[in-house]
Amino acid sequence: MLNWNEAVRQSADLALLPQVLNEVPLGALPLSGGLTNRAWRVCTQSHGWVIWRANSPHCVVFDVCRSNESAVIENAHNLIDTNQVIAHSSQGLVLSWLEGEPLAAANQLEPILEALAKIHRTVPVTGIRQFDYQRKVDHYWQQLKSADIKSHYTDMYQQYRTLPRLHCQERVLCHFDFGVHNLLQTDRGLAVIDWEYAAVAAPTLDLVMTLDMLDVDIQTGLEIYQRYQPHIDFVAWQEDMAIWQRHAQVMASLWYLLAAQVWNNDDFLNEANAIYQRFC
Length: 280
Prior knowledge:
- GO terms for molecular function: kinase activity.
- Pfam families: APH.
- This is Thiamine kinase.
- It comes from Vibrio hangzhouensis.
- The model has no long low-confidence stretch (mean pLDDT 93).
- The chain folds into 2 domains: 2-97, Phosphorylase Kinase, domain 1 (2-Layer Sandwich), CATH 3.30.200; 102-279, Alpha-Beta Complex (Aminoglycoside 3'-phosphotransferase, Chain: A, domain 2), CATH 3.90.1200.10.
- The protein contains 11 helices and 11 strands.
- The chain is 46% helix and 16% strand.
- A 6-stranded antiparallel beta sheet has the order 1-2-3-4-6-5. The chain has a 3-stranded antiparallel beta sheet with strand order 7-9-10, with helices on one face. It has a two-stranded antiparallel sheet with strand order 8-11.
- The protein is of the alpha+beta class.
- Helix 9 (218-226) crosses helix 10 (234-263) and helix 10 (234-263) runs antiparallel to helix 11 (266-279).
C-alpha cells in the first residue's frame, strides 16, 4: 500500500477524496483492470477499505455519469449483492469494498444468466438514465479526434447509426458490462460490481452484450435466460438480438477507438479493426 501522499502524487484525482470523506485516508492502491474508471482502493480509518471513483475527464469522453452510477447502485443493492454507496459528490463516488474471488467462467453460464435476469426484473426508477443507442454512438463518434480514423470508419458508423424497428419495447435496468471481470464469488454467493455504464434500456441488448463477452451463441444463451424470464417471446427476442448483435459490435468498435485514443494503446485499435473487418 502506498502512503497517502505518495498515492496523491501518482493520481491527482485522489486529492479530492478527503473533502468527500471528511478525513485523510491512510493509504491507497491502484486497482488493476479498470479501463474507464482507473479506480483506487483506499484505506480509511472510518470505513476500512473503500473504492474511489473520481469524476475525471475520462467520464466525459466515455459518457459516464457518477450520479447515475450512484443511483443505479442504490437501486440494485436491494436486489443483488453489490457495493454500497458511502459518499457521493461532484468530485466522485466512494463505494464500500466488496470482498470476493473473481468468478471463473467455466461452468458458470447458468448462474450468470440467472443473475442478469434478476437485474432485469428491477422496476426502473427516476434518477437512472435512459439509454439511447443513437445518442451513445454519436457521442463516441464526436469524441474521436483523428480525421484518418473517422474517414476509415465513416461508412460503418453511418450504416449502423440508427436502429430498425424492434419487437421488444420493454425497458429495464441493464448493466452493460456483465462479464466475468465484473462478477465476484463471495461467501454470500454471486456479487456484481462496476455499474458505471448501467442504464434503463432493452434487456435484449444487455443480454446480447453479455453473451458476446461469454462467447455464447444467442439461441443457447436465450434458452437458459428464459428459464428465469419465462414470459418472454422467444422468437421475437431472438430476432431483436440478431439486430442488436450487429449494432452492439459497432458501438463496441467506437468505444475501442476512444480507448485507443485516451490510453494511446494500439491493442484497442486492433480490437476495433477486427470488428471493422467482420463488417466490411
